[in-house]
Amino acid sequence: MKYYKTLLITILILFIFNFTIHAVNYGGELKLRFQQLPIELNPIYAANETEQIIIRQIFDSLVELNDKGELTTHLAESWEVEEEGRLFTFKLREEVYFHPYQIAGEPVPLSARRVMAEDWKWSFEYLASPENKSPYAQLFSKVKGYDDYRQGESKEITGIRVLDNYQLQIELTESYAPFIYNLTKTAAAVMPKNAVLNKDNFSIIPIGTGAFKINDFSKAQVNLVKNNNYWKNNYQEEVLPYLEQIQINFPTKNEEKRNYQQYDIYQLNAESYRYFRDNEIHDDYQLQKIPQDIYYFLAYNYSSSKQFNSDSANIRNGIRSNLNKIDFNEVDSSNLMLPISNNDQESYLQKIYKSSQKNEVENYKLENNIKELNLISNDSKNSTLITDLIRSKLQTNKLTVNLKKYNWAEYLNLINDSFKAELFLMTYKYHNKYDFLADNFYSESELNYYSYNNQRVDNLIDYLKLVNSLENSDQAFQIIEEILINDNPFVFILQAAESRLFSDRVAGQDLFTNIYLKDNYELIYLK
Description:
alpha+beta, D-Maltodextrin-Binding Protein, domain 2, Dipeptide-binding Protein, domain 3, eleven-stranded mixed sheet, 13 helices, 21 strands
């Protein structure tokens, strides 16, 4: 009897210990402090970073990008691509509801808040309407009937069709399979027609389907509360979100400086970063860099006056080898940039660049092969910081690096023309891997400033416009990646970043290191 009693106690202890390890805490209020004040929370207009973060908590899209930047289902249960990338058919989830709202002072019943295909058609046409003047209307420019709708010749976009309550079809004017990436944007969210048209304040009290719903919006604060009827909970065992509410605060005139301990996550500007870098931080807080989707890259110009002949690849790899030894933290006084080698969550761009570093030529002496390099950039603060550092690392008593800086207008005119400098600095906002390839490596692209020309890459990018299956497109992306690892113009890349103070009570902080998941607050909980 004593043995069985001891065994029972042991099992109970192990069960409780295991439950404690794997359990997450539900409830609580997460307090954030951001630098930018939101002005507009209607997704078809929202622009600044804070607005985008808030909108991602309130609204949902048909499809989304997962933690690796790959397309996956969201409010669409599945989709099919037909007619060589011209026709998209979406099967919608049936248990999705808009947040509670009222019309003429009366609550709209749950049954009337169910999201159906007609809601999607209306939302997309609302976004594209010329009367609304959304900066994101062009997301649907390739859809059949878009031009007629914009010009007032049709009352609808004929290429957006409701097949039944839970099937939506989108037809394009020509084959373009990557169109589906447009549907991951925050502007391409579903909204309830009656709430939008009957609420003068939809821009400050928006209604969506997301994990959180808005409670109030003031100059100093936005409060979000848990959506108790969140659609994901109809399709999975794990109940989301974990948090009961989120309080988002903004700078005020009377705000006390260094008041970070009032918040769980405190976003820093350059001045406050320097203060916290140089002064002691409370033991319960950590200073962290958060990667952004903007990159600074130093690139090689394939049409430069110095072609370097047969040694061109070695010289590019030699430059990479020299520059990748830089400890950028020594000079980045504002903590605004992050060497991409420090980020474990790789974008497609990062994978190509990091793999190409394997081609670096050890102990390659540039000055033994070339005597002069020309480097150009714009004269912004960050670009100046980067190019001054690059010049100091490359220049020797045998190798002269000529650096010229231009204002933005002059610089864009220069790089859009045929320029002769071997190296130049550019910024690029990364959206998805197709746009990255089509923008930078397609020979006819207006953004292909380095005159990169590879017929095989061109053919594969054209193929991606037609392909119907994700499996085939993944294979094409893999082949392009293999080509670019051995032949790409990037010699040095930095990723834009911001700095935040995190309280130790915030669990799931690893999410913030992933550019695809960093705004996914439904997965955050408090210890």
